[in-house]
Amino acid sequence: MTVVLHRIDDRLIHGQVVVGWGVPLGIGFIVLVDDQVGASPWEQDLYRMGVPDSMKVSFCTVAEAIRRYPEWEASDRRGILLTGDIETMEALRAALPGIRRINLGGLHMKPGRIERLPYLYLTDEEVRRLRALEAAGAVVTAQDVPTSAPVPLKGLG
């Protein structure tokens, strides 16, 4: 199969990802790409507790994810690649042009961010950077759960 969802969600692994997306998509693995979590066995254990035994979880740094991406694309299982921020997804997309669709999940309030959707807060600079990802060939949409309609980037202001 392949990586079927490339998602940016600042909560990383949580119920909405595991149950909301993982179950309907028939996910067999989740790849969490985060340099800090990739280097912290303690944080990995915390995230692993929220994932059923039927789903394999990998914790990777950006460099490791770039190296291992072909392995996940060739997997006989379906997977989710998850980052907690736009910067990490930008780094992956720059090295892996095969990432053609990017899902914006929960990105929550921080100083300077504006509510774009009830679950999505972005600065104007973050919107500009997401537009640059689209200009480079990726389709960026916001969608909190698979049963809701995807919102195109242009609809976020």
Strand proportion, as a percent range, falls in 25-35%
Fold-level CATH name: Fructose Permease
Can you count the helices? Answer: 6
Summed up, the domain count is 1
Description:
The chain has 157 residues and is α/β, with parallel strands linked by helices. Helices cover 36% and strands 26% of the residues. The chain has a single domain (3-148), classed as Fructose Permease (3-Layer(aba) Sandwich), CATH 3.40.35. It has helices spanning 15-25, 35-38, 41-48, 62-73, 86-95, 124-135; strands spanning 3-8, 27-33, 56-60, 78-83, 101-104, 114-117, 120-122, 139-142, 151-152. The longest helix is centred in the middle third of the chain and has 12 residues, at 62-73.
